[in-house]
Amino acid sequence: MHTAGAQHPPAATVVDASPGPGGPVRGLLAASHAAPSIAVTAVITALAAASGRGVAGSVLVASAVLAGQLSVGWCNDRIDLRRDLATGRGDKPLVAGTVRPRVVAVAAGCALALCVPLSLAGGLAAGAAHLVGVAAAWSYNLRLKCTAMSWLPYAVAFGLLPAFVTLALPGHPWPAGWVMAAGALLGTGAHVTNVLPDIDDDLRTGIRGLPQRLGPRRARVLAGVLLLAGAIVLVLGPTGPLGTVGWGSLAVTGVLALAVALPTGADPRSRLPFLATLALVALDTALLLLRGAALT
To answer: Which residue, of 54, 110, 157, 199, has the greatest Cβ tally within 10 A?
Structure first.
């Protein structure tokens, strides 16, 4: 995942080979990036259920998306091990030694292998859309996170997630353009807020994605703009009057986007902007479903 001019992180102390007191299962769970994985899975499953995929179809969607998300999370932590060691990221289970690198690597491979049949079980078109998104996420881990195109995998992956839901419906319809645009905007905004706490460490270890090149202040503003734009698209995209729910959604998401964009004087390593992003996406999705908006 290094650009041609990126610096390799300096050699660091080898990770402790023995699992810590929390046990390998706990360490493996922590390395999976469980919170965003569960959040993304819940949002897409809710969209699948609301679109008429039924119980079996929704469970299949949830299983495929969760497998894909877990594979990406484990891949990320395993590939970032040397950089995390170099920057002293004791909060990372691989650095703390609570789980072995080989275990995480095998888990990532198994989750990815499981994701393929689960995705294709909903149909070739739907499965292909999801697998392209998962491949985009892996490309971020393997290479693009070090480049100015770091935002692209997020835009592709989250823009295609609604297609995984709709392409399995009768007639295999693509989602409406506004749905895919909103997914791409919110996904890119999540990328920015996710890396905000780590920008300084990233720059020291050769990671120069778009947020790192912009710096914390401009990156925060960009994140707020992207999240607000995604929320506006979700609210204005469906046909029909906005109503109280629509206007309320705009107001609340506007406040959350503003909270992300404006520095609060809190710890620069705080994960609050990213947690606010997850809350914003969940709220927008819930209000979209309350309005009964169709994805196609």
So the answer is: 157
CA atoms within 13 A on the CB side of 38: 8
Residues with Cβ within 8 Å of residue 255, at least 6 apart in sequence? none
d(CA 115, CA 222): 32
**Strand ranges inside the chain, DSSP E:** none
- Asked whether 204 and 85 are in contact (CB, 8 A), the reply is no
Number of domains the chain is built from: 2
Task: For residues 199 and 212, give the distance between their C-alpha atoms in angstroms, rounded to a whole number.
Answer: 5
Burial code of 208-218, b = ≥16 C-beta within 10 A, e = fewer? bbbbbebebee
Q: What share of the chain is helix, strand, coil (3-state, %, to 5)?
A: 70, 0, 30
Domain boundary residue among 112, 129, 148?
Answer: 148
Within 234-293, strands assigned E span: none
The structure tokens listed for 22 are: 């929390």
In the block, residue with structure tokens 């969760």: 66
pLDDT single digits (tens) 7-56:
333 434 444 444 444 578 899 999 999 999 999 999 999 999 999 889 99
Domain enclosing residue 279, as ranges: 176-296
Structure tokens at 253: 């998401």
Going by C-alpha positions, the residue among 104, 277, 253, 140 that lies closest to residue 197 is: 277
Give the CB-side neighbour count of residue 48, counting CA atoms within 13 A: 27
| CATH number where 219 lies | 1.20.120
CA–CA separation, 276 vs 33, rounded Å? 16
- pLDDT digits 0-9 by tens, 75-94: 999 999 999 999 888 889 99
